[in-house]
């Protein structure tokens, strides 16, 4: 059997789930902003939609690995889908005044920067999410979910402290894993030991 015959098609269930997660981001964003500060049914619906959408990250990954449907497109789209969804949530929370803009800006700069780096590396390789990156996404998802759910209105201000702790942890992991990706980029692009820094020019 040739390599073309065993190559996994990009048009498969895991990639479809990932694309749906990207498409749900603007729907969630609109629902969040339309509710505003009412913390009514739309806010609950937006929070539940975010939780369900971000949960599909584990589902599509499990399906891809268990059924042999892992593709380069999936490796690329999966972290992008997470960034689009979490980015929409962070921007929405900052617009509503529930999250400082500097937190959103710091996280988004890291996420956009790493995504651009992944695209630059496409000519040589596909860079999948690292274990640290996946942990960062998990903690970000928990922190954002707690911020979206209007629990303080039901249980009091102590919930805000829990939200703050998780958001601070997410911020630390975002910065640490961002630095780790930069170190990886430096290691991948540095010349091999003993290799000339500049190839000799032709003398013809």
TrEMBL record:
Transmembrane segments: 16-34, 41-59, 141-159, 165-183
Localization: Membrane
InterPro entries assigned: CDP-alcohol_PTase-I (IPR050324), CDP-OH_P_trans (IPR000462), CDP-OH_PTrfase_TM_dom (IPR043130), CDP_ALCOHOL_P_TRANSF_CS (IPR048254), Phosphatidylglycerol_P_synth (IPR004570)
Its EC number(s): 2.7.8.5
A Pfam family matched in the record: CDP-OH_P_transf
EC class (word): transferase
Topology with respect to the bilayer: Multi-pass membrane protein
Top-rank taxon: Bacteria
The entry's keywords: Lipid biosynthesis, Lipid metabolism, Membrane, Phospholipid biosynthesis, Phospholipid metabolism, Transferase, Transmembrane, Transmembrane helix
Family the UniProt entry places it in: Belongs to the CDP-alcohol phosphatidyltransferase class-I family.
The protein's name in its UniProt record: CDP-diacylglycerol--glycerol-3-phosphate 3-phosphatidyltransferase
């Amino acid at each position: 059997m040739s390599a073309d015959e065993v190559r996994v098609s990009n048009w498969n269930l895991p990639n479809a789930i990932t694309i749906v997660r990207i498409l749900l981001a603007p729907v969630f964003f609109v629902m969040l902003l339309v509710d505003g500060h009412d913390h009514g049914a739309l806010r609950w619906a937006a929070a539940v939609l975010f939780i369900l959408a971000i949960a599909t990250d584990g589902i599509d990954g499990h399906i891809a690995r268990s059924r042999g449907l892992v593709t380069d497109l999936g490796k690329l789209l999966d972290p992008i889908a997470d960034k689009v969804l979490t980015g929409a949530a962070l921007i929405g929370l900052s617009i509503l005044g529930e999250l400082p803009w500097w937190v959103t800006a710091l996280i988004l700069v890291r996420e956009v920067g790493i995504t651009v780096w992944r695209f630059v590396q496409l000519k040589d390789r596909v860079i999948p999410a690292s274990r640290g990156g996946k942990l960062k996404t998990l903690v970000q998802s928990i922190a954002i979910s707690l911020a979206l759910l209007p629990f303080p209105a039901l249980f009091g201000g102590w919930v805000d402290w829990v939200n703050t702790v998780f958001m601070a942890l997410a911020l630390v992991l975002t910065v640490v894993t961002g630095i780790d990706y930069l170190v990886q980029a430096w290691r991948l692009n540095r010349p091999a030991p003993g290799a000339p820094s500049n190839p000799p020019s032709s003398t013809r």
